Amino acid sequence: MYSIIDIEATGGNAKQGKITEIAIIRFDGKSIIDRYSTLVNPKRSIPRYVQKLTGINNSMVTNAPTFHDIADKVLAHINGSCFVAHNVEADYSFIRAEMKASGKSFSCDRLCTLELSQRLIHDAPSHGLAKICDHLDIQVEDRHRAEGDALATVELFKHLLDRDVYGLISKLKRKK
Description:
The protein has helices at 48-54, 58-61, 67-78, 88-101, 113-120, 129-135, 146-163, 168-172; strands spanning 2-9, 19-27, 32-39, 82-85, 110-112. By secondary structure, it is of the alpha/beta class. The chain is globular and about 45 Å long.
């Protein structure tokens, strides 16, 4: 079982930024089993350039739950699965930092679709999510929004699973 995850945040790293949106899509390797998506109140102002990039503004998150409020739901959706994301260490570090701040321990196996695409799709001119999706004719709706990017990552992951004839995915899985 996989949890394909995308987050949006106030800044570029987990030490300074806070999550503003999260999407988790449970995927069994063939089909989407479950979805969870919510805006998150970061308890700080969202920089203008981030608002412009994501379309998420301060008024949108004012009445959203804080990460602390949803930490147990997030754990329930990820539990027992492999955490999958495009540039996995970025998303994982944000969630791990938010869990720690909420008094929760968090650790799970991880897979990076960015790294996998670099190893399995050699003819792609670039491997950023938008570019690799364009290369594979994957529709990306709501780019730079957590659910839109997570759904695109599901489609990318399906392509990667189909191309993985030598078991590279199981070899590249980062253990807890």
